[in-house]
From TrEMBL, chain A:
Keyword annotations: Amino-acid transport, ATP-binding, Cell membrane, Membrane, Nucleotide-binding, Translocase, Transport
Species in which this protein is naturally found: Lapidilactobacillus dextrinicus DSM 20335
Name of the protein this chain belongs to: ABC-type metal ion transport system, ATPase component
Keyword Cell membrane: yes
PROSITE patterns in the cross-refs: ABC_TRANSPORTER_1 (PS00211), ABC_TRANSPORTER_2 (PS50893)
Lineage summary: Bacteria, Bacillati, Bacillota, Bacilli, Lactobacillales
Residues in ABC transporter domain copies: 9-248
An annotated Gene Ontology molecular function: ATP binding
Stored InterPro entries: AAA+_ATPase (IPR003593), ABC_transporter-like_ATP-bd (IPR003439), ABC_transporter-like_CS (IPR017871), ACT-like_dom_sf (IPR045865), MetN_ABC (IPR041701), MetN_ABC_transporter-like (IPR050086), NIL_domain (IPR018449), P-loop_NTPase (IPR027417)
Automatic annotation (TrEMBL), chain B:
Transmembrane segments: 32-54, 75-96, 164-189, 201-220
Protein name: Metal ion ABC transporter permease
ABC transmembrane type-1 domain segment(s): 26-220
A cellular-component GO term for this protein: plasma membrane
Keywords carried by this UniProt record: Cell membrane, Membrane, Transmembrane, Transmembrane helix, Transport
Organism: Lapidilactobacillus dextrinicus DSM 20335
Gene Ontology annotations of biological process type: D-methionine transmembrane transport
Family from the record: Belongs to the binding-protein-dependent transport system permease family. CysTW subfamily.
Database matches in PROSITE patterns: ABC_TM1 (PS50928)
Source organism superkingdom: Bacteria
Location in or out of the cell: Cell membrane
Main location: membrane
Length: 356, 230
């Protein structure tokens, strides 16, 4: 999480020319990922996530001249085939469908990554044992992939990707084929590797939950463009793009709960001085006894209809759907007070303006 | 014992050894099958691999090269073997110095086999998960390593199975070549058995061909099964 970029993508276009049409899979993307980041990239299917990350190790070449792909200071587009292959060994990659070789044992699958490592046979065996130990599969080394569960296969994929001690690990939907519990354990392993080895991780996913669990930065992609990018907390607490809000809602359920909340009698029959508000707060603001303060200071009572509290990067982030009631004047004062105290206030419905 | 054999298959016993005997026939069939498998197999394998890597989705995608190879294979695969036998006479004469006997049959056999096998190899290798190929590319491997360590290794069980099919069809071709003068069990079954009304020879020669086929099929299946871990 230093400020030193390890991956710099500039002006990236990838256009696929089909007989009938052109697909702009990646459209003028600028992205800078710092050393030690766990950088999440979210977006719906077809947004261009895979195509974009495949540009990082040039499995996919940008189709425009102006593109720049810098990894660890090296301008990859200026390298010849052999130099590029050497660089690729320092960029590990794991995949949704694991992509292990069925014909090889677990140990041989990991060993496969070491063919050009220059290590002796004995050193390679040691390294493989070490890696399988790291991912918790030491006892499976002689099994074949078909004998493993999905989570175990992904661990083999991780061991293989780490074999050449890469600085960067790209994870393309690596947990999308796994159940929630296994997903959590794989994400835990990635977070561990980030901490222990200082590994920079690029995590592509369509599950906001995964991003929430381990990322410190996040980019949202839509139709080939990065439409929002920033610090996890900032994007999470103050999303700008509609799509980002949709994604966040998949884990907080605030928007989807709104429909239910609006059906409730108390919301249907808001009186003057009553408002339905969405309150969002991050970190310190959460610690204040907000609801109590509203009552004591402004004589405004708060009826919490829905709440979601998360701990993101050790910081509490809360979202509440609340009906505030007091006299119209008191309610207005209470709203102003909250805004002044860094609580994000969105009035969703008010009983004042002739609300039904 | 010999008495009994003499009674049920007198012509087989009489024609067992000698220049045009059964034993020679077995060897000639094995000789033609072996060399055709080896040389035709290698050419076919190379062509098949080339078809896969130069394919639009391949690791060395190249439309021009692919389309030349593709047409080449199609043309040679379309020529009926019996016609190939006579058409390639001059080439055969040039390469092996004779157009008769098992050796003379090798050139048409190889030309008849290689394109057929190339397609089999292509069809087998394109089924390998592109993701596995991609992961090898991500590990920094070039075409040679990917061909030898991924395509041929992952594809091995199915390659063995298609190779068995190809060898069996080669045995079929040797019989056809035999009928027009290449020797071998096919020649014996037709010229000495069928055409001279010596049915016991026809039957025994056929059975011998079947035995060879079953042995190859059995060994191939066993091997493929042993190394298949899907
Ligand atoms: N090799 C290709 N040829 C043509 N079009 C392609 C190719 N690869 C991807 N595309 C197109 O580019 C767009 C982006 O695809 P991409 O795989 O990058 O999306 P994604 O965000 O990874 O989606 P998913 O979540 O489904 O994996 C899609 O419209 C896809 O159809
Ligand atoms: Mg994808």
């Amino acid at each position: 999480m230093s400020d030193q970029p390890i991956i710099e993508l500039k002006n990236i276009d990838v256009i696929f020319k089909e007989p009938e049409r052109e697909v702009r899979a990646v459209d003028d993307v600028q992205l800078s990922i710092n050393k030690g980041d766990i950088f999440g990239i979210v977006g719906y299917s077809g947004a261009g996530k895979s195509t974009l990350v495949r540009v990082i190790n040039l499995l996919q070449r940008p189709t425009n001249q102006a593109a720049v792909v810098k990894v660890n200071g090296a301008d990859l587009l200026k390298l010849n085939a052999k130099e590029l292959r050497t660089k690729r060994r320092k960029i590990g990659m794991i995949f949704q469908h694991f992509n292990l070789m069925n014909a090889l044992t677990i140990a041989d699958n990991v060993d496969f990554a070491l063919k050009k490592s220059g290590l002796s046979k004995v050193e390679r065996q040691q390294r493989v044992a070490e890696l399988l130990e790291l991912v918790g599969l030491a006892d499976k080394s002689h099994d074949y992939p078909s004998q493993l569960s999905g989570g175990q296969k992904q661990r083999v994929g991780i061991a293989r990707a780490l074999a050449n001690r890469p600085d960067i690990l790209i994870s393309d939907e690596a947990t999308s084929a796994l159940d929630p519990k296994t997903t959590a354990s794989i994400l835990g392993l990635l977070a561990d590797l980030n901490r222990k080895l200082g590994l920079t991780i690029v995590l592509i996913t369509h599950e906001m939950d995964a991003v929430k669990q381990i990322c410190n930065r996040v980019a949202v992609m839509d139709a080939g463009k990065v439409i929002e990018e920033g610090d996890l907390l900032q994007v999470f607490s103050q999303p700008r793009a509609e799509l980002t809000k949709d994604f966040i809602d998949t884990t907080t359920h605030i928007q989807s709960s709104l429909a239910v909340v609006e059906q409730q009698a108390i919301v249907q029959n808001l009186q003057p001085g009553e408002v339905l508000v969405q309150l969002g707060y991050v970190g310190a603001a959460t610690d204040q006894p907000l609801i109590t303060t509203l009552y004591k200071q402004f004589n405004v009572s708060a009826n919490i209809l829905f709440g979601n509290l998360e701990i993101l990067q050790d910081t509490p982030v809360g979202q509440l759907l609340v009906v505030l009631s007091g006299t119209p004047k008191e309610t207005q004062q209470a709203l102003r007070f909250m805004q002044e105290n860094d609580v994000q206030v969105t009035v969703l419905k008010s009983g004042d303006k002739g609300g039904n | 014992m010999l008495n009994f054999l003499n009674q049920v298959m007198p012509n087989v016993v009489e024609n067992w050894s000698g220049d045009t005997g059964m034993v020679t026939g077995i060897w000639q069939t094995l000789y033609m099958t072996f060399w055709t498998t080896l040389i035709g197999g290698l050419i076919g394998l190379a062509l098949g691999v080339a078809l896969v890597i130069y394919d639009e989705q391949g690791i060395m995608a190249n439309k021009a090269v692919y389309s030349i190879l593709d047409k080449f294979v199609n043309v040679f695969r379309s020529i009926p073997f019996i016609i190939l036998l006579s058409v390639v006479f001059p080439i055969t004469q040039f390469i092996v110095g004779t157009t008769i006997g098992p050796k003379g049959a090798l050139v048409p056999l190889i030309i008849g086999t290689a394109p057929f096998y190339a397609r089999q190899v292509q069809n087998t290798l394109v089924q390998i998960d592109p993701g596995v190929i991609e992961s090898a590319e991500a590990l920094g491997y070039g075409p040679w390593t990917i061909i030898t360590k991924v395509y041929l290794r992952e594809g091995l069980p199915d390659l063995i199975r298609t190779s068995v099919l190809t060898i069996i069809s080669i045995i079929g071709l040797t019989a056809m070549a035999g009928a027009v003068g290449a020797g071998g069990l096919g020649y014996i079954a037709v010229s000495k058995g069928y055409q001279r009304y010596q049915n016991d020879i026809t039957i025994v020669a056929t059975l011998l061909i079947l035995v060879i086929v079953f042995i190859i099929q059995g060994l191939g299946d066993l091997w493929a099964k042993k190394i298949d871990h899907r």
